[in-house]
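Bit of a strange request maybe. I'm writing a small parser for structure token strings and I need a real example to test against, not something I typed by hand. Could someone generate the tokens for this chain?
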Amino acid sequence: MKKKEASARIKINRLLEEAGWRFFDDENGPANIQLEPNVKMSKADLTGLGENFDKVEETTRRIIAEDKRILSDPAPFVALHALDASSVNVIIRAWVKSEDYWGVYFDMNKTIYSVFNKEGIGFPFPQLTVHQAKD
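Reply from user aminoacidic:
Good idea to test on real output. This should exercise your parser:
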């Protein structure tokens, strides 16, 4: 029975890793699964190129502070992650209790979307601008 359980766990771990979950920090990024009472949550939120990062950071920190399921220790982390072709990527890392993970994950997506729209913070959509030369 233990051999079947170990084999099943290995399969599950491989599926999680293929889906982008990491148990350990590696070249693809920091660990985003912890087998502890608290779970580290990572979320890259996209904002339109040229948005005011200070406003994005302040708004994000306010949203995080309002959700009592997000733990204050370790402190949530918000940073400018990358400048991509059509977006500025902001990363959010917050800690929650294991049982709150999915609720916080989905609620944060919805809340960030709603609050950003209310406060005029745009989300990029893939687009291409074509300039036609005049003869």
